[in-house]
Amino acid sequence: MKETTYAAIDVGSNAVRLLIKRTDGNGAADDVRLVKLLLLRVPLRLGFDVFAKGEISKKKAEDVVRFMKACRQLMKIYDVDRLRACATSAMRDAANGQDIIREIRKETDIRLEIISGQEEARIVFNNHIERGEVDNGNYLYVDVGGGSTELNLLSGGKLMETKSFNIGTVRILTGKVRDAEWEEMADFLDSIHSRYGNIRIIGSGGNINKLYKLAGVKDSGMKSFAVSELQRLYDELSPLSVSERMEKYGMRSDRADVIVPACSIFLFVARHIDAVTLIVPTIGVADGIIDGLFLDDLESV
Description:
The chain contains 14 helices and eleven strands. It is an alpha/beta fold. A hairpin with a 2-residue loop joins β7 and β8 (158-165). The radius of gyration is 19 Å and the shape is globular.
């Protein structure tokens, strides 16, 4: 397989990201791996506009276009061969989402897709090819974003069920999560727990990685920590103000406000499937986008 450089753009509800990876040589397909070259993250926080007002403000729309222009220049520097750009929950819900996409295409020639919650969940599932550490038991991928939470159930190494819920950190902060949505998630979790029994959680996203670091667990191979430790962190963080979390734990403001609602979502999931530990690989939507492109190329070799 020839050396290939891939790029993923993830326009999320809390942050926008550009990830660039390259295959590590021209060896046999089975031996090729992906090496990260660049990760750029900017907290544009589109969800705060969308979930409160129904559309993205003019200023933030302009900032999205500026970000995409920067991505275009960086991709030229890194000689990117293949790109996929995806927008998730905030852009899905924004009344002016399509207008912004047309402006991005006009200014940068980048085609930004607004993907469904189901497609987002499937993209996250693609990360399993980089993991390769877990056995053939039952695992629930839980990807907590600003606007939605994506759940992927794997059993015996196969994707069995995938579900997306409009429950996210920014939605919680803006008071836009319906009680019915929590009930639907609870019903889904109770159902898979009754049918599959023991299920372990694989957490995805920047918040769970930050919580893992705050837990101070010493790595012993695969990163994991106890749900009881997650509960301890929630009890410790939730009474604090955003500024207090920033000062005490050295967090950025755009992490300090969303980390508590993220923690509450993971705890909600863990309670309903009786999980006692969480596995925390460093994965996200952008990784899944690139993995999907990579898999397509492997299949064509």
